[in-house]
Every structure is written in C-alpha cells, then in structure tokens.
Amino acid sequence: MEDIFIHELMAYPGLKIYQKTDSFRFSLDALLLGDFVEFNSRDKKLLELGSGNGAILLYLSLKTKIELNGIDIQEEAVNLAKKSVKLNGLDKQINVKQLDIKEAYKYFSPSSFDLIVSNPPFFKVSDLKLINKKENLSLARHEISLSFKDLLEASKKLLKTGGSFFFIHRANRLDEIIVELKKENFVIKKIRFVYTKIDKDALMVLIEARYNGKIGSLKVVPPLYIYDEFGNYTKEVLKIFHLGDDNFE
Q: What residues have CB less than 8 Å from 185, skipping those under 6 apart?
C-alpha cells in the first residue's frame, strides 16, 4: 500500500487526510463545495452522497459540530475516509459507510437529514473522450452508475421537508439541472458561478436547492474566480484553502 500517503488538508492546522497517489485525492471542487455549505441552529444531521476519501466531511467538521455521515460505493475510498476520520479523532462526529447511493433509503430512515451534500459525477457516459481508463476514477467522474436524476431521487427520500441539498456541477449542464430539480420538487435557493478567470465562461456552478421549498427567494451570490490575471489563486480561493493572511490573525 506504498501508494497511499497522509496529506495536510490544505493549510488547516492538524487536519490530515489519507490519499492514494493515482486516485482518491481531494480536489478544488471539494473545498469550494465545503465552503459553500451553510448551517443553521436547527440542523442536526448531514449526509454526503458520494463521500470519496472524506475530504468534504473533514472540511465541514471545521464549520459545525453536528453529526456528519458519508456514503460511497467504492470500498477503497471508504476505507481511506475511515482512516482519516480516526487519524483526526473525529470518530464521534463523522460516520462513513460503503453503500450504493440508490440503495441508501434502505439503510437510513426516510426524511432523516437536514442537509445533503454531493460532488457528483460531472460527465455523461456519452462523453467517451473524457472517460478515464481506471474504473475508480471513471465512477467518480462519469455517470456510469449514478445519474443526476438518481442523485435527486435519493436525496428527496432522505431529506426532511425544507431540507437543503448543496452540490457542485458543470455550468454547461445548468439547463438540465434546473429541469431535473423542478421534476423532483426542489427549489433553487442559492446559486454561485465559478470561473477559472474573469475573462472565461463559467466552468462550475454551486447550488443550494431546498426540497419542497417555496419559490421566490433565489439568491445569486457574487461569482467566484479561481485564478487572477497572473495565473495565481485569487485571495478568496487562498482564504478557502486557509492560506490567506486573515486566517492567521
């Protein structure tokens, strides 16, 4: 298992994560989504669908003390996540289980979560040129075993009425995403577009959708730019990474 190593979760003091050299490594998407998630005083339980090696759950443990759960279909990713949870002494807050998202309703009680979070596969199987030869990476990036519709169907069974579903996806699939959300009785409450640079089209979109929520209070927050004109991370991204000066006062 020499290809597995322990890595600092960016610059967060004392927070470490097990990763694998050629797969199961946390990405920028994970930290952007973790930063986007908001909690309120009524929240008690969160579930991440497709938790991978646990990066988002570890990140969220810095923002809340509520119960955090994660499920993933890939055994190796789940094992890495469990090792990281134990390494950081978060066994009492974070629970990770190997489980097919489409079967999650058989394990968890209906309407039992206040929040659901997901960084789902972005690409359709028809995008053949983009499919990775390694099965574990293909499952994480492509809708081979899980479509966005499958994700919504699982979420609505597990979310309380009025519960929030936070996710990140490709901006060029936003039209499809809106249609599918409406079909499953989700209402977009907050949306943020993510750009690589100020002069580029939006690459990703961060969305909070409320299950059986009321229409009429959509909040479009300012865009997030990843790189500045010199190709360096912007101050906001560095702050998310915990590398900005404001984080070390």
A: 156, 211, 212
Angle subtended at Cα 136 by Cα 133 and Cα 142, rounded to the nearest 5 degrees: 75
Buried b (16+ CB within 10 A) or exposed e, 79-105: bbbbbbbeebebeebbbbeebebeebe
Report the pLDDT value the prediction gives residue 140, as an integer from 0 to 100.
44
Q: How far apart are CA 25 and CA 33, in angstroms?
A: 15
User: What is the maximum span of the chain, computed from C-alpha positions, in angstroms?
Assistant: 53
Residue pair 43/133 in contact by the 8 Å Cβ criterion: no
Count Cβ atoms below 10 Å from residue 21 Cβ, excluding itself: 10
Q: Residues near 67 by Cβ (< 8 Å), separated by ≥ 6? A: 44, 45, 46, 93, 95
Average pLDDT of the residues in 86-99:
96
pLDDT tens digits, one per residue of 97-142: 999 999 999 999 999 999 999 998 754 545 545 444 544 444 444 3
Amino acid found at 59? Y
Given a contact cutoff of 8 angstroms between Cβ atoms, the answer to whether 154 and 102 are in contact is yes
| Dihedral angle of Cα 18, 24, 27, 30, to the nearest 10 degrees | -80
Other CB atoms within 10 A of residue 183 CB: 11
Least confident of 58-67, 137-146, 227-236: 137-146
Residue 3: pLDDT band with limits 50, 70, 90: confident
| CB of 183 closer than 8 Å to CB of 155 | no
* Residue 177 CA neighbour count, 13 Å, CB half: 24
Q: What one-character DSSP code corresponds to residue 10?
A: T
The secondary structure of residue 23, as a DSSP letter, is B
